[in-house]
Automatic annotation (TrEMBL), chain A:
Record-annotated membrane-spanning stretches: none
Gene3D superfamilies according to UniProt: Cyclophilin-like
Carboxyltransferase domain segment(s): 24-315
Keywords: ATP-binding, Hydrolase, Nucleotide-binding
Pfam families: CT_A_B (PF02626)
GO molecular-function term, one example from the UniProt record: hydrolase activity
Taxonomic path: Bacteria, Pseudomonadati, Pseudomonadota, Gammaproteobacteria, Pseudomonadales
Protein name per its UniProtKB record: Allophanate hydrolase
The keyword Magnesium belongs to this UniProt entry's keyword annotation: no
InterPro entries given in the database record: CT_A_B (IPR003778), Cyclophilin-like_dom_sf (IPR029000), PxpC (IPR052708)
TrEMBL record, chain B:
Name the UniProt record assigns to this protein: Allophanate hydrolase
Ranges of residues in domain Carboxyltransferase: 3-225
Keywords tagged on the record: ATP-binding, Hydrolase, Nucleotide-binding
Superkingdom of the source species: Bacteria
Keyword Iron-sulfur: no
GO molecular function: ATP binding; hydrolase activity
InterPro entries, per database record: CT_C_D, Cyclophilin-like_dom_sf, PxpB
Entry annotated with the keyword ATP-binding: yes
Pfam assignment, any one: CT_C_D
Length: 324, 291
């Protein structure tokens, strides 16, 4: 009862919904960057929402199965194929023992989530199977998936309807330009009023340094800092602070030039000021941004952030109802 | 000191105790985070103390951010009445200063350094006014350190030296971060030492290496069987200079599963320390070495 990895695609890792509770030790929550996509893929194949699946970036893996399984691929538009025959994303389909699941070229988005009935059952580390390669936790012996790996599968408990699909209206991907809503805060007061405006006025582009730890953005005007004598232990650059915790979604701008939004595998702290956070409702979207994509940051207040969170939760509830 | 409270998105509250580092600010961070833990507030998911600040992560579906903010401010009043006394442990961490492995690594990244003609430790000694590296090592290992934060990556401790501000070593980080740092490198950036728990990128100056494992996800190291991360905020550390022979012997012990760090339980009072720093540190050394 295994899935055999023939080729690994790009940065393919085992992910579930992560391991909260250890961030104070520098171990991030990890888990799927696009949580809605993983949860939906799991529900489509009859798994618990938090079962472990595969996350791939831009290029999917080639997988061979040793038993009949149900598979669903959600997130990016990276069309799956079974023995070369096309299948739909966001849709449950059968792969028979001996057949090979592979992928066509990327059409939109960045990350796919492959759920397999029964889920992947590699060992649990600190409550999760999510791969955190820096700390050698989860995954396959603490690392991403490689060709030749045999991934164990659990028993599927629920029979599912082959061909069941999530309507397009419930699938979420970034617009063009993508919009990420931001709640200003943290060290917001460190930049000038003019820079507080320019950050939201400018269109940024996703840089090549974009991974599970964080996404870097380029192209907007450099941020200017309010003058001050740097506090003891903060470091000489005006963008430095006394090393502190970094919230998930926090936006640091080293030397004021290129914003970095920390994601699920965030470094838990460091010495750069942060101007606020991307709101929780928009974190999933970041996982679907490709390099060079234009992005606008949109200023919101707490009320709007909580309303957006509710809206996302309602969409998830609708998907649950549809697939229950 | 007046703490500044701010939201980090809709899931975090970030509290800056002070803009600058001090043991006072660190103790407030530690007692506040302990108070939050003891209060068992519904919806709290992560409690993260840092050097002079701390952060609480919560689920806004369970507790409204404004209510979470009120709870924290209510706890601050209580935590301020704390005695600034800590029951903790002191640990000897052996350090092979100027070892060949961090030397090889620093030579690969000279173009990212402030002074490509000097090693990291030569540079640090010189800009802090020491006339030799030996004297600098004496200062770095001569007074103990507080673990004031664990983080960045898995189990990496930041340490702040227990001396008055005039004796604090200050060294800028690399101009551009390295892409490689050996595991268990003893580093320095700003006014903090650190020990790199895993191999990887880093911007701190590299002074040496310890043979003592501090992070073990496989938990095969005997003293990491209970938990894979060794350090916690509030630990006190004494860096003990060792030579190549002692380093090799310690590594052999680690490999045989026989290495045990020297650890003693101690009681630390911040007010006693402020009244007599050298005297308090001497007592800590007596406790560590059973004198």
């Amino acid at each position: 009862m295994t899935v055999n990895v023939i080729s690994a695609g790009i940065a393919t890792t085992i992910q579930d919904l992560g391991r909260p509770g250890y961030y104070h030790l520098g171990i991030p929550m990890g888990g799927a960057m696009d949580r809605l996509a993983l949860k939906t893929a799991n529900l489509l194949v009859g798994n618990d929402e938090g079962a472990a699946g595969l996350e791939s970036v831009f290029v999917g893996p080639e997988l061979e199965f040793t038993r009949d399984v149900t598979v669903a691929v959600c997130g990016a538009e990276l069309p799956p194929k079974v023995d070369g025959e096309p299948r739909d994303t966001w849709t449950a389909f059968t792969v028979k023992a001996g057949q090979v699941l592979s992928f066509d070229f990327l059409k939109s988005g960045a990350r796919i989530y492959i759920a397999i009935s029964g889920g992947i059952t590699t060992p649990v580390h600190l409550g999760s199977r999510s791969t955190y390669a820096i700390g050698a936790l989860g995954g396959v012996n603490g690392r991403p998936v490689q060709p030749g790996d045999s991934l164990p599968l659990g028993k599927s408990s629920k029979t599912v309807k082959d061909g069941i699909s999530v309507p397009v209206a419930l699938r979420r991907g970034p617009s063009n330009p993508a919009e990420l809503r931001v709640l200003p805060g943290l060290y917001w007061h460190r930049i000038t009023e003019q820079s507080q405006d320019s950050f939201f006025e400018d269109t940024w582009k996703v840089a090549n340094e974009a991974d599970r730890m964080g996404y870097r953005f380029q192209g907007g005007r450099k941020l200017e800092f309010v003058e001050r004598e740097q506090p003891f232990s903060a470091g000489a650059d005006p963008s430095n602070i006394t090393d502190a915790c970094y919230p998930y979604g926090s936006i640091q701008v080293p030397s004021g030039s290129e914003p970095i939004v920390l994601h699920r595998d965030a470094v838990s702290g460091g010495g750069y000021f942060m101007l606020g956070c991307v709101i929780s409702a928009d974190m999933d979207l970041i996982g679907q941004l490709q390099p060079n994509m234009p992005v606008r940051f949109v200023k919101v207040d707490m009320e709007a952030a909580l309303a957006a969170r509710k809206e996302q939760a309602a969409i998830m509830d609708e998907i649950r109802e549809l697939l229950s | 000191m007046s703490s500044r409270y701010t939201f980090g998105g809709d899931e975090h509250i970030f509290v800056e105790v002070d803009e600058e580092m001090s043991l006072e600010a660190f103790f407030v961070s530690l007692s506040m985070t302990n108070a939050v833990r003891n209060a068992n507030i519904k919806g709290v998911t992560e409690i993260c103390p840092a050097n002079a600040s701390f952060q609480i992560k919560f689920d806004p579906d369970v507790i409204h951010p404004d209510d979470m903010m009120k709870e924290l401010k209510r706890l601050e009043a209580q935590a301020e009445q704390g005695e600034n006394v800590l029951e903790t442990r002191i640990i000897e961490v052996p350090v092979y200063y100027q070892d060949p492995w961090t030397y090889d690594t620093l030579m690969r990244f000279r173009e990212r350094h402030q002074d490509p003609s000097a090693t990291d430790i030569e540079y640090a000694a010189s800009i802090n006014g020491y006339d030799s590296v030996e004297k600098f090592i004496e200062a770095h290992s001569g007074a103990p350190w507080f673990v004031s934060m664990v983080g960045f990556v898995s189990g990496l401790p930041f340490l702040y030296q227990m001396v008055d501000r005039s004796r604090q070593i200050q060294v800028p980080k690399y101009l551009r971060p390295r892409t490689d740092t050996p595991r268990q490198t003893v580093g320095y950036g700003g006014s903090f030492s650190c020990i790199y728990s895993v191999r990887g990128a880093g911007g701190y100056q590299m002074f040496g290496i310890t043979p003592m494992p501090i992070y073990d996800p496989e938990q095969s190291v005997p003293y990491l069987k209970d938990f894979m991360v060794f350090f916690k905020p509030g630990d006190i550390v004494r860096f003990k200079p060792i030579n190549r022979e002692e380093y090799d012997a310690a590594i052999a012990q680690v490999q045989a599963g026989e290495y045990m760090p020297r650890i003693r339980n101690v009681r630390f009072s911040l007010s006693e320390f402020n009244a007599d720093m050298d005297g308090t540190n001497a007592k800590l050394m007596e406790a560590l070495y059973d004198r």
